[in-house]
Amino acid sequence: MKEYNPKEIEPKWQERWEDAKLHVAKTGDANEKFYSLETFPYPSAAGLHVGHPEGYTAEDINARYQRMNGKNVLYCMGWDAFGLPTENYAIKVGKNPKEVALDNIANFKRQLQMFGFSYDWDRELNTSDPSYYKWTQWLFLQLYKNDLAYRKHAPVNWCESCKTVLAREQVIEGACERCKNNVAQKPMEQWFFRITNYADELLDGIEGLDWIDATKEGQKNWIGKSIGAELEFAIKDDNGKIKVFTTRPDTLFGATYMVLAPEHELVDQLKDQISNWDEIENYRNEASNKTEMERVHLDKEKTGVELKGMVAINPANNKEIPVWIADYVMVSYGTGAIMAVPAHDRRDFDFAQYYNLPIKEVIALPDDSSINIKQITRGSGIGNWVGHPIEYQVSDKKTDMILGWKYDNIGQTCHTLLGTIKNSGEFDGMKVEEAKEKIIQWLEKEKIGKAATTYRLRDWLVSRQRYWGAPIPIIWCEKCGDVPVPEKDLPVLLPDDVDFNPTGEPPLASSKEFQNVDCPKCGGSARRDYETMDTFVDSSWYFLRYCSPNEESAPFNKEDVAYWLPADLYVIGAEHIALHLLYARFFCKAFADLKLVDIREPFQKIRHQGMIMGEDNQKMSKSRGNVVNPDEVIEKYGADTMRMYEMFMGPLADSKPWSTDSMKGISRFLEKIWKMQKKVFVVIPAKAGIQDYQKVLHQTIKKVTEDIQAMHHNTAISQMMILSNALHKVENIAKEDWEMILKILHPFAPHITEELWHVDHDSFIMTESWPEYDEKLAAEDEIELVVQINGKVRERHQVPADASEKDLEKIAMEGKKVSALLEGKEIVKVIVVKGKLVNIVVR
RNA sequence: GCCCGGGUGGCGGAAUCGGUAUACGCGGCAGACUUAAAAUCUGCUGGUCGGAAGAUCGUGCGGGUUCAAGUCCCGCCCCGGGUACCA
User: Fold this and answer.
1) Burial A444-458 (b: 16+ CB within 10 A, else e)
2) Tell me, what's the ipTM?
3) Helices (H), A335-479
4) Which nucleotides of B are covered by protein (CB under 7 A)?
5) Helix (H, G, I), strand (E, B) or coil at A624
6) In A135, A299, A685, A742, which residue has its Cα 20 to 30 A from A498's Cα atom?
């Protein structure tokens, strides 16, 4: 028999599988469908990272397993090829981004193919190909025509280094996600998608999905729904009103001042009233010069300036209160203005302390001396100033605070009643929740406010001032305004005669050919929108295109989508929770409303892959020099070993350090499997019984089947190693057992199992059906009985698995060691756990 | 600050309806084979004490519940990830 040589057998089978079209999915097939959705990679110049094949192998194991269970599997690969890094790299090496992207794709494809992933390559797609981005543009137009895409002049996040605007989601701690440079606010005319129309549905839809809780929570937090009230404060001696949003209308009586965001439009409108305009202007300039990072960052002192000459009136008690501007209030959230309740809000409290503004308490604890106030302090922020607790625990029951009582020694277990707080007029004595409701009713009656909901989620800013993306299919005509490009003229192709170097002007503006165009409406001269779309637009619908990749009259075929979606499994990195999932779900819902698809949730089941760290347990990076190159690993060990090693490292979702040395374990295992072939007999020679390994074989089939379904690949592999250790000890293996062994190993190590299968089969192993285990053979007939005295293990016996509790107790008590230890002791109690142990409690 | 994970041998990790802690693998030690090395095979491998039998401690720390706790409860510490003047 030949040596195990992965370099020879792996490319051979990859080619033969492809020739046989073994992985082609058939839309409408009578077999049950299974859509195994893979994160399509961004093909970087650096090539494949060892992290990529982790999630991909997990998906491939699943895809192969599902096929062997008779499912019609859709499993594809594509390229998320537009994007800034490619453009920047192209500028650096003096090439066209298109060229760079194609090179990168070719390299990625070569690398991925080495792993033997069972993709249906006939459905391969590339977002930067005109045949794809034509439809990205078409979808943009559908959203535009249905008022889900719009243009707006607004302050946006601008990255000076990347020379483009960014979506809110791409700003991390005030810095650009890509280049980590500070992001500034800049007012610009930009395109947005109305994702906020779907905020509630995006929130509610999460419940029915098979996602882990952390992912669901991430989505919910990102949407950030806040329920409260919107109300107006009158401005003294003026018709103007200041509109605020609050989640705590119950604290209205405690509002002792107001704060506007520095950019708030009211400030300009009331310029004439304001006596300290120079000071205001100064502050506004300072604020606008601060980067988002400086402004948002951490525990810095709050600053602000009072708008002198301008006074607001608290509608609850008609008290005159001052109005300030301060950059701790964001123009983009709520109404850009707040009523400040320093007694019950940490930020307002800090500000009021600093500028000596009045603090008025309106909420205190209930009159209930049984409360341990210590319990309240944690998480409620009650502290020394009166924080803003809403609820706390009393006797395991959540109870509301009421408007009414005040204690000292907050934060201590002991506390004494200081008196009552009666600052809320007719609402005194109510619990918080009741007060919220009643005050909103009062606001509605007075016509100065109403219940309102605010979201953290913003509309999705999709225009970018760079080249390597899908051009926005809009023509700007002086006479007609925005005119959509007629659908027959799609795609709007990216021009080649452009200056790629970022100057602040979008590169497309430098192309004469691209810019000058006739208005489709009036025929007059017009110019194209010279911006491109965020690459997240491309990646938010690729899973639909896989269903009908060659459709020429539409982005996807509705029936095909109805057959395949939702995806039955989607393995993605946890870092995509906020952006990709949110956008893709929004697209799906919007498309459903446009009657393009019939489903509203695209991803039924999502699981995550963790990060593979360097051998030093640090993130792999060039600068640390701890990057592992998959080409070299495959060269040394082969794809099957690498696939199995990545699955054996630990739970899929955990981050875990790479160890090339540890790969030896897998390599030895596969060598053993290879050599085992010579023990296989059609007719077992009489001398050696097969019963020596059958129990563990059937236990292994059971465990591997369960573990694949639960995606516990590491323990499935452990169990197969236990089986191989058992087989190592026997002389002969029956042919039908050997076939089952190859089948269960196949999803993990497809090449070696295909090679060994073909020793005496002509079929492909994946077309065979998944083996069933025999429950009787897998069952243990003997177990080890553990005998404990006072919980400590003292003796062990081999006993029949079905021994009764009585028998177990008898065996335990009669044990040589145990009976000696029991000498002279009083037996208090005997606990028998059938099939496991006996614990004797003595005194 | 808030939200989510997670702390188990020298290392990656098993075991969570409470029931033998450390499966499987790496590494290490000893032996076999070999002129030798590699590869392979066999055995051992949590700490401490002990020649051994065995005893005893042991899943981040401190308490608790239980016949029995890595697992449940309370209070902390540390690490990783996400997120933030969100009113």
Assistant:
1) eeeebbeebebbebe
2) 0.95
3) 346-355, 373-380, 432-445
4) 1-5, 11-15, 19-21, 23-27, 39-42, 55-56, 67-69, 75-76, 80-87
5) coil
6) A135
